[in-house]
Amino acid sequence: MEQRSQQGPLKGFITLSGQRLIYTIRRNNRARRIWIKVEDREGLVLVFPKWAKTSQAPDLIRKHRDWILGRLGQRAAHLASAPPPLGEGRTVSYRGRALPLRVRNCACVNPSVEIHRDSVVVRVPRDREAPVGEVLTAFYRERAKEVFTRRVQALAEALGVKPKRVSVRDQKTRWGACTGRGTLTFNWRLLLAPPAVLDYVVVHELCHLRHANHGRRFWDLVACHSPNFEAHRDWLRTYGRLLTLG
């Protein structure tokens, strides 16, 4: 069975091995074939070229049932280990540490966040609604800009490069980027990762100011300024997706 909302992709459901599965169908005009994937957020997703009929979806799912059920099982285990979205759990990740979250209602005008050694304290006004998750996200993004600017300045001096600008964004698939004009962009969610991992990403993008590709000279330069970069890169590959779920 399939249904489409007024906006957004087509949704459907199917029963496999006694499990009722919801799937999403997306159109991609550049796709040359139908492909199936399991995403952390959406779950089972089928990407259809513009010429393909969506009525094929149930048969395709049944044909690949073993692979799909296996990947969905991995997704369930993966999500079970993911931290809750900011503000929805009893702890908050900050710089690689899980800190207890304390929410205080007070006679303040604007919400605020304080990071202590043993906790994260969020103060929200009594007289108006201020969702804790939104307050924390705004704080993290602002703090991330300060942290990245500071680390870029320190590490750029060691590398002998001069970036033009530092910006922070909310990206789901990239941790950093470097433009040809010298602008460095970083994912604010790296503020949840250990400091050494954040520094590796900064070094990685700064090295692109010297080498635009990922050739041998680039990685040699990265290794000089982040000797354990392979461990930090592996950390992102293993745990990085968990940082983007909230």
Low-confidence parts:
none
Order of helices and strands: EEEEEHHEEEEHEEEHHH
SS element count, helices: 6
Rounded radius of gyration (Å): 22 Å
Distance between the terminal alpha carbons, to the nearest Å?
30 Å
Strand content: 25-35%
Principal-axis shape: globular
Instruction: Give the number of domains.
Output: 3
Task: Determine and state the CATH class of the largest domain.
Answer: Alpha Beta
The strand line-up of the biggest sheet is: 1-2-3-5-4
CATH superfamily grouping of the largest domain = Metalloproteases ("zincins"), catalytic domain
What is the average of the pLDDT values? 88
CATH-defined fold name of the largest domain: Zincin-like
Counted beta strands: 12
Can you give a write-up of this model?
The strands form three sheets. Strands 1-2-3-5-4 form a five-stranded mixed sheet, with helices on one face. A four-stranded mixed sheet has the order 6-7-9-8, with helices on one face. The chain has helices spanning 57-63, 65-80, 132-159, 195-207, 216-225, 229-243; strands spanning 2-4, 10-16, 19-27, 35-39, 43-48, 91-94, 97-106, 112-115, 120-125, 165-169, 176-178, 183-187. It has six helices and twelve strands. The two termini are 30 Å apart. Helix content is 36%, strand content 27%.
Can you give me a brief rundown of this structure?
The chain is an alpha/beta fold and 246 residues long.
